Amino acid sequence: MLRAAIRARPDHAWSHEALSSALEAKGDRDGAIAAIREAIALNPDEPAYRTQLAALLKSQSESPPPTPPESSPK
């Protein structure tokens, strides 16, 4: 639904912000960061978007590195 709204109005920053929030909730931090960066590009005067980006980047840097898969014995 949000992606359809973005296709219909790609210049609407709020849709990108909403998509960012939805992607973050689903655990897609990279997608959330990309979406909020687009919102900032469309409306650079909205401080809430920069705050959201800062929080995403902070949580990204605080995440533990991915655990490598266990190798099976040969």
**Classification by helices and strands:** mainly alpha
Total DSSP helices: 4
Q: Tally of extended strands?
A: 0
Rg (CA only): 16 Å
Order of helices and strands: HHHH
Mean pLDDT, to the nearest integer, reads: 90
Low-confidence stretches: none
Task: Write down the overall geometry.
Answer: elongated
CATH homologous group name: Tetratricopeptide repeat domain
- Main sheet makeup: none
User: What is the CATH topology descriptor?
Assistant: Serine Threonine Protein Phosphatase 5, Tetratricopeptide repeat
Note the beta-strand portion: under 5%
Question: What's the structural domain tally?
Answer: 1
Helix % is 55-70%
Corresponding CATH architecture: Alpha Horseshoe
Distance between the termini: 48 Å
CATH level 1 class label: Mainly Alpha
Explain how this protein is built.
The chain has about 70 residues and is an all-alpha fold. It has a single domain (about 1-60), classed as Serine Threonine Protein Phosphatase 5, Tetratricopeptide repeat. It contains four helices and no strands. The longest helix is centred in the C-terminal third of the chain and has 16 residues, at about 45-60.
